[in-house]
Each structure stands twice: as structure tokens, then as C-alpha cells.
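Thread: zinc ion complex, take 2
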Amino acid sequence: MKCAHKQITLYWSGELSAEQMAKVREHLRDCKYCAQYLDELQALASDIQALPELDPGKNLVLNAVRQIAPEAHQPPVRRVAILATVTGLLLVGIAVWTYLPRNTQQLRPSILQADGRWGEDSKEEIRIAAVKNRLQILKRRQHLTFPSRPARFPGIEKEIHGMQHRVSRISTCMTERCPRSFREILIHKRRKG
Amino acid sequence: MEKELIQRAQKGNTIAAEQLYARYHNRIFSYLWRMTQNRLLAEDAAQETFFKGIKGLKNYREKGTFKSWLFKIAYNEGLRILKKERKYFWQKPVNENDNENIEVPWQSDGSPMNPTPLSDDVMIEKEQQRAMEAALARLPVKERQVVVLRIHEGLSFQEISTIMNCSINTSLGRMHNAVRRMKKMINKGAGQP
Ligand SMILES: [Zn+2]
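Output below.
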């Protein structure tokens, strides 16, 4: 075998057949250059493996699930089955609701837990969550961009403007929650000039 | 166990989906953090990865592992967000002699600080990790992906080629270049304050 770093890399990675591995092993006995490369690979691997896994400090999966919820909650079942299930669940639900109201609240899927409410509100809830999410992204951009470079970003500002309209429209029925994140942006923006 | 979760999630069970992706929560975030070199971009990209992962789960066929399927989404999401953010951020070109502005995870805000004083050994270890992280950050983005996916995530070069949409030879070449570059940087003491 001739010197071939690719073979050495695959050998180190355990992606060679037994036959190929034997060849590489034989080559490594005579070739300082390749043996050194293998050492370097192993050293790098142990250093990189020691690097920590990072925690974002918030549940990004849950955020994603919240964005999707409406569709994700409708498995493809036939209408008759749905009707039967709904009727059954309704009866069970009423029974459980009457006797164990607190427990049922805990049993609800996380997606509709925000206020413990079902029905009309949940749609708004999800829309607000999506809008809030967008706002957060914009907020972060502002925060990251302005401290180091006080420049104008007409694209973002225009986007924020559009968001403001959408949020204020939605927040007429959900006054407490939505405007806060927007206010934060404004305050931040004012502070940073 | 994972297989079962996947099947349940594919049928539209959001709780199963949540459990499934929770297993990859920190790994996907860490991966994207190392890719984007920015905590907030990594959060956005990770959330988007989970979003697309949950939505697109019905398209997942058991051709490759679920893990490499998910990392392919994360890789594309990371690239997409980097491209998009370049419009908003003035991105400094990678400079091997520039030690400043390299964000290191355990110094970034939000990560828990150790309240007890660190022993010398721990300090040295942390310093070594910081140097490694800084050197890794200075690799060209695609070389860095190969290193992280192979060593930190334990994926094969075959899988990496699929994720990065390149030939296995290209992946192996990137690994070789990365090893040489990292060696040079560490020897030069790059990443030292
Ligand atoms: Zn050789």
C-alpha cells in the first residue's frame, strides 16, 4: 500500500473491511508519516470529544411543537372513527372533568396548556405564540446588531413595523401577553439609540 | 425504543415527537452553536430544525439512521441561517491570527457559572478546552462540520457525505485538512489569551 491519508482516516474511523485494515496496519509499521497522522487524528479526537455539550437553557423542542400543534393533533383517522371517539371522549371527559378537574388539567398535552383552555382561545394562543416567536428572533437581531454597530437595518425595521400591526390586532383580545414582548423591543431600541 | 417513538410520532402523536426530539435537544443545539459560532443563531436554527424535523417526520424512511437524517436537517438549517444572517451582520472573515470575538460556550451569558473556586486542574482543563474551541472555530465552516460530525457525533464518513451532500473523498479530504490546520493552530498557541 502507498501512503494514502484517506485510507488512514477510514482505518481510524473503523470503516474498512478486515482485509483493508490488515493492509493499513502493515503499512503503518513501516511508514512514520502515516503513523504520525494516525496519532494526530487520535489526539484530536480525544480533545474534541472532551468538549462539553451545551444547553440552550430553554426547551426548543417544545417551542417547535407549539408552532406545529394544530396539524400535529389531527392524526389521519376516518370521520366515523373520529365521531365515535369524540363522543366517547366527551362522555369520559365530562365524567373526569366533574370529578377530577385538577388532574385533567395536568394531563393535557403541553401544547394547549398555556392557559389550560381549549376551543376558541387555543387558535389565538398558537398564533400569538408564533408571532411572539418571530418577535423574539427580531429582538435578538436588534440586540446582536446594535451594540457593536449602530447602523440602520431598514429590512428589519420594516418587518418589525409589520409585526406591530399584526400583534396589536391580535392583542386586542389578548391584551396582557402579546404587547409585552413588543414593548421590550421598543425599550431596547430606545436605549441603544 | 427510538423506533417506537418515531412510529408514534409519525402517526401524529405530538407527545411522542416531543420525547423523540428531546433526546437530541442539546446535541443539535451544540452542533449548531459550533457551526454558527453564535448562541442566538444556534437557538433559532435548532428550533427550526426541530420544527422541520417534526413536520417532515412522515417523510423519514428507514434508509439511514434517524440521527443522520436529523443532522442533515440541522446542517441545512445552519447553512441557511448563516447565509441569511450575513445580510444583517457584518461577518468578519475567518482569520487564524485573530483571537478576539470568539465566543466560548462556558463564558457566554446564560450558562451557569460555577460558584465554587476552580481547582488548578480544572482551570487548566478549561483553558485547554477554550483553546480547542477557539481553534475549532477558526476552521473553515465545512471542515469544522466534518470534524464535529465525525468526532463529537460519532457519525461515519459515509453518513457525513450524505448529510453534507458531497463525496466521501471530499469528506476525507476535509478531515485531513482540518487535522493539519488544527495541529498548526494548537502548536502556534492560537486560542491562548
Ligand atoms: Zn504512509
